[in-house]
Specification:
0% of the residues lie in helices and 54% in strands. The chain has 177 residues and is an all-beta fold. The strands form 5 sheets. It has a 7-stranded parallel β-sheet, with no helix packed on it. The relative contact order is 0.13.
Length: 177
């Protein structure tokens, strides 16, 4: 297995992933499927993911699917299921993450069953669904030291860790149960 990004490693470039499937990838450290890095230049690594599926990916430490360490990630109309990591079962964000029209289900981590945001990272989630994700903290979303805003999003049925943990800004139209 790779240490980072067993499917794709983006070091300060621009990558567009469209109509793709990432399944069964594993990284020994972070970014089970994709590692996005700004190459030391904040915001330089630009990753766009659209109409794609991530299933059964894992990382030993951070971001079972995507590790965003210093870049900008945009995810739209994608599905994440059965992924795992220590932090961020699907996505570990440390810079800028924008998620829309996507579904996260059955993912797990120690913190942030689907998304773990930290270190001043900024997450915006709109028109998405989180269901049956689990973690010790933040069954679906854990915000630790950054900003997280949800709009028109459903976050439900987290078996452990509550639906969200940390400060989450309600942008309106959300449902949590």
């Amino acid at each position: 297995p790779y240490e980072r990004g067993s499917g794709i490693t983006n070091d300060s470039g621009t990558v567009v992933v469209s109509n793709s499937t990432f399944s069964g990838n594993h990284a020994n450290y972070s970014g089970g499927a994709i590692y996005n890095y700004g190459g030391g230049i904040p915001g330089a690594g630009i990753l766009t993911v659209q109409n794609s599926t991530f299933s059964d990916n894992s990382a030993t430490w951070w971001g079972g699917c995507i590790q965003n360490e210093g870049g900008t990630v945009t995810v739209s109309s994608s599905t994440f299921s059965g992924n795992s990591a220590r932090g961020g079962g699907c996505i570990h964000n440390m810079y800028t993450l924008d998620v829309s029209n996507s579904t996260f289900s059955g993912n797990r981590a120690d913190a942030g069953g689907s998304i773990f945001n930290e270190g001043g990272g900024a997450v915006t989630v709109s028109s998405s669904t989180f269901s049956s994700n689990s973690a010790n903290y933040g069954g679906s979303i854990q915000n630790f030291g950054g900003t997280a805003t949800l709009r028109n999003t459903i976050v439900a049925n987290s078996p452990t860790g509550g639906n969200c943990s940390g400060t989450i800004t309600d942008g309106g139209g959300n449902l949590s149960y």
